[in-house]
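Example record

The entry below shows one chain as it appears in the dataset: sequence first, then structure tokens.
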Amino acid sequence: MLPSISLPKLPKLPKLPKLPSVGNITKMVPNVGDVTSIVPKPQLSSVTNLAKLS
């Protein structure tokens, strides 16, 4: 058996500043539904028609 080598203790990492929880971040960011309703979107049918023409 190998002799058990005691590793030197690593210095404790400094505590990171608390990040806001994911729930809070998502509350700050507008919902995807809100974004799509805010952004004026052309009718999908007209977009596909333009794609066919080009």
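Notes for this example: The chain has a mean pLDDT of 66. The CA atoms of residues 32 and 38 lie 10 Å apart.
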